[in-house]
Specification:
The protein is mostly beta strands. Helices cover 0% and strands 42% of the residues.
Amino acid sequence: MSRDHDLPEAPSRRLLLKGAAAAGVLAATSATPALASPSPSAPGKAVPHVNPLVLQRADPHITHHTDGLYYFTATVPEYDRIILRRARTLNGLSTAAESVIWRAHATGPMGAHIWAPELHRIGGKWYIYFASAPAEDVWAIRIWVLENANPDPFKGTWVERGQIKTAWETFSLDATTFKHHGTRYLVWAQHEPGMDNNTALWISEMANPWTLTGPQVRLSTPEYDWECVGYKVNEGPYVLQRNGRVFLTYSASATDWHYCMGLLTADIHSDLMEARSWSKSPVPVFTSNDTTKQYGPGHNCFTVAEDGRTDVLVYHARQYKEITGDPLHDPNRHTRVQKLGWKPDGTPDFGVPVADTAKAGA
C-alpha cells in the first residue's frame, strides 16, 4: 500500500539527528463541527463496538470529558496536521466531523512528522502533546505542547507552548501525562546517549503542563526479544490506575506485525519516581492475531464506555500482515476499541485484538 504525501524519503528510525527547537507562536484554528455540547448527563448503556472505529488514524487518543462527549485525536498518514473529532458515543466517532485544529509549519521547528497527539484537560485548559521535527531535519523529533484556554477545544486559539525540554537533545516522542496523589507526571520515549537502543521509557514530575522539574528516571528499556524485533523500541506509554496499582502500557519493536504491547506495574502507594517501584511483564500483553486477522496492535490509550464503568482499550492495528516498503509509509493503521477485561488478581486482561465488525456503522 502507498499514500501520497510530500515528506522527504524516510531514512531508518535508527538515524537519530540533533535539530534546533524553538518556542512557538499562535496557531490557526478551524471551524467547529455542527455538534452542540450537551450538559453532563447520567451514564448510559455500553453498546457493542464498531471496528475499525476510525480508518487510517494511528496512535489514537480518546478522552471522555465531563461534558459527556468523547474527544478523539490521532496521527494522520500525511504526518502534517492535528485533527479532532467528538461524538456522544464511541461508535459515533466513526462518522463524526473532523476538524484540523493545527497544521505543521512550512519551515523550521514543528514542520514534519507530526506524530501521536494526545488531548488532555489540565487546570481548566486544553493541552495537546505531540511529536514533531524541523521541516529541514525530519528525524530530529522532539516533544511539543499546544494550549487552548477555550472551554471548547474546537474554538479559541491553540497557542504553541514550545518544546518540552528533557535532559538531552535526542530523538524523543509519545508523551503522555497523568496525575497521581496530587503530583502531575510526564511519561515519554527517548533515546539516551550512549545506549544501544532506539528509545526507552522515562518519567518526570512536572512544574506546569509544558515544563519538567526534578530528575528524569528511566522506567524501561528494550531487553526482551519481543521488544527488539527490527528496532529496539519502548514507546507509546499510557497510564491506567485501578485496583490499588498503576498500570503503564507501552509498545515495542518495529511498526509492522511485530509491534506489540508491554506492561509495567507499580503499587499505588509506591514512589513512582523510583525505578524499582515498577515491575515489568516478561511477555507481551497484546499481540498480533492470525485468527482475528489483526496485526501490529499498539500505541494504545484507555477510556470508559457509555455506562461509565466499563474500561475500554483503544489502539491501532492493520488488517494484513505483509507490508510493502517501510511500515511508516503504509497508511492503514486503523483506530480500534474493545472492552478491557480484568483478571481475578486485579490485573488487566487484554485478550486478543478482536475481529472486524461484520458491517461498520455509527
